[in-house]
Amino acid sequence: MKELNYRQIDPADINDNLIRLIASDWMLVTAGNREKFNTMTANWGGTGYLWKKPVVFVFVRPERYTYGFMENSEGFTLTFFEEKYRDALNFCGTKSGRDFDKVAETGLTPYFTGLGYPAFTEARLVMECHKLYADQLTREAFTDVKPLATHYGTKGGLHKLYIAGIEKVWVQAP
After folding, report:
1. Please, what sign has the CA dihedral across residues 92, 68, 127, 109?
2. In this predicted model, what pLDDT tens digit does every residue of 106-153 receive, in sequence order?
3. Domain CATH for 69
4. What is the pTM assigned to this prediction?
5. Domain containing 116: what range?
């Protein structure tokens, strides 16, 4: 990725407040391959340390077009952008890749990482992530039903949790 003006850093050296980065700045979750991929905006997830490695966890509803790509890929990227890309993030979070070409509509420029995962050259931070664990959330597993009632109501649509190892982190070089 050197030709894209990125430099690799250790996940522990990410300077951003990761809660704010995910919750407020948002991220694109992108999975697939060179032939076909999809991206979606997300602000549910987190980072941590599990199984002796830095990890991310993200949530994708089975109804989302990106879900099939997540299911069929060994990994994915999380990409974070400067505020000037908020319109692109809004588009990718409100429109489906089934109905729109998100790359054409947003003007984002895809590239493929060294691990073969799709990402975007405009991102200021890219995490290459390898899936380690996935499980469907269930109503019965909620020990506090308030989030269930607040975010899901009485019908389906519960997210699937993906835990992934952070394989590489890239930041735009100054």
Report:
1. negative
2. 999 999 999 999 999 999 999 999 999 999 999 999 999 999 889 887
3. 2.30.110.10
4. 0.94
5. 2-172
How many angstroms separate the CA atoms of 103 and 126, rounded?
Answer: 17
* Total domain count, the chain: 1
**Single-letter amino acid code for the residue at 173:** A
Segments of 10-151 assigned E as strands: 27-32, 37-42, 45-50, 53-60, 75-80, 110-112, 118-120, 125-136
**Gap between the Cα atoms of 43 and 159, Å rounded:** 13
Structure tokens, 131 = 């899936």
φ, ψ of residue 84 in degrees (nearest 5): -60, -10
DSSP string over 140-160: GG-SSHHHHHHHHTTSS-PPE
